Amino acid sequence: MSLLELEGVDAYYGASQALFGLDLAVEQNEVVALLGRNGAGKTTTLRTITGTVGRREGHIEYDGEDISGLSVEAISNRGVKLVPEDRRIFPTLTVRENLLIARDACKGTDPRPIEEMYEVFPKLEELNQSLGQNLSGGEQQMLSVARALIQSPDLLLLDEPTEGLAPVIVEDLSEVLHEVVSQDVTVIITEQNVEFALELSERAYIIQKGSNAWEGSIEELRANEGLLDQYLSVGGGEEGTEGEAAGDD
Predict the structure, then answer these.
(1) Which CATH number fits the domain that encloses residue 3?
(2) Which is deepest, 103, 170, 199, 242, by most CB within 10 Å?
(3) What separation in angstroms does the CA of 13 have from each of 67, 72, 215, 242, 248?
């Protein structure tokens, strides 16, 4: 049985439909890449899983339970944690204070010790007393991931973790995330940096205009360069979904 399963999911921003009958399944401890051009509906998919975007048709099952009608808080309390593209750390609080707030807000699961986060992210221990607003983009991203991990997620949703980061910082983040995915956490990652996502993942879904376009193993995807050109190359194919107008990636 899959840990997470979306079946025939339609999602909307107001009157604008962004997902069209989307299907997705993720096994326990699996890392899955969700790929597509800007506006394809990747961020909308993650937001729909967490309940922040409304689902009108289809169902979402998590750990054997239909969570389609649950609140954002109830879904989070079941161990589903999102690391958003905009990071959403508290700029005027220190690294430690950011982690403390995330730990204290944890419900439904037992939070992990701050010291354990420092073992995964040694740089954050060095920056323990630094304000969030004074961190580099890569450091903010590490803090954002640590804030999610400290809440002991069963399912971690990473939305464009390398967005805006310099190549050398992307390499550092890749090392950290390889450590994260080795810790029995199920992960869905959206990325425009396709190679970054493929190195972390076991399977991939490609979505186009809010619908399923392809799914399979990373080996199958690498072996078929035509798929990458058809669905992911800049300027190929048609324009993005309605979700693009609503702020989707």
Answers:
(1) 3.40.50.300
(2) 242
(3) 19, 16, 25, 8, 10
Assigned domain for 248 exists: yes
Rg (CA), the chain: 17
- pLDDT tens digit sequence for 62-80: 999 999 889 999 999 999 9
**Does the pLDDT of residue 207 top 90, yes or no?**
yes
Q: How many CB atoms lie within 10 A of CB 5?
A: 18
Output the CA–CA distances (angstroms, integers) from residue 192 to 113, 183, 233, in the order listed: 32, 24, 10
Q: Residue 48: which domain range? A: 1-79+202-249
- Assign residue 205 a region (left: φ > 0; alpha: ψ between -120 and 50; beta: otherwise): beta
CA atoms within 13 A on the CB side of 16: 16
The bridge status of strand 155-159 relative to strand 80-83 is: parallel
Domain total in the chain: 1
β-pairing verdict for 54-62 and 80-83: unpaired
- pLDDT > 70: percent of the chain: 93
- Using N-to-C axis directions, what is the helix angle for 137-149 and 95-104, rounded to 10°? 20
98 assigned to some structural domain: no
99 vs 87: CA distance, rounded Å: 13
**Strand locations in 53-202, DSSP E?**
54-62, 65-66, 80-83, 155-159, 186-190
Q: How far is the C-alpha of 238 from the C-alpha of 172, rounded, in Å?
A: 34
**pTM of the model as a whole:** 0.88
